[in-house]
Amino acid sequence: RKLYFDTHALVCLLEANGFTTQQSEVIVSALVKIMNTNLDMIYKDMVTKVQQEIALQQVMSHIGGVKKDMIILEKSEFSALRSENEKIKLELQQIKKQVMDEITKVRADNKLNLNLEKSRVKELHAQQDRALTQTDRKIDTEVADLKTMLESHKLDNIKYLAGSVFTCLTVALGFYRLWI
């Protein structure tokens, strides 16, 4: 193993900053031990180039075996999958046709229901219009009757007023004649 720093230079630096030679050597020794321990831990997790090549060859051979298995499966099951796929396509077309038939039937039912509702609404509007027309006629008749009654009462009032005025005039003329 190589250390990538100068241990003697570190000892000299520590001594220059107030440490004794013995203290400096102990500190540098502790640092070297720590670094060696860390490197040992790192090397435990590492693999060598030879181990890596062996693992790569094992993986490549495993991939080759899987490829062979896939080719065999493809040849043997491809025709089965193709026929299954054709069956599913036919079933899907049948289901699609049934769905389209159902959609057509529902649309026809909805159109029929809509037309029935439209005719019911038109009939209801016609009934309302007839009732409104009858009500308008009744109101017009009542208004005409009230106008007639009002005119009749007016005429009666005018008659009574004229009679009262003529009576008062007659009485006044009678008094006038009596006095003159």
Automatic annotation (TrEMBL):
One of its GO terms (cellular component) is mitochondrial inner membrane. InterPro entries: CCDC90-like. Its main location: mitochondrion. It is found in: Mitochondrion membrane. The chain crosses the membrane at residues 160-179. Keywords: Coiled coil, Membrane, Mitochondrion, Transmembrane, Transmembrane helix. The keyword Isomerase does not apply. One of its GO terms (biological process) is calcium import into the mitochondrion. Belongs to the CCDC90 family. This is MCUR1 regulator. It comes from Daphoenositta chrysoptera.
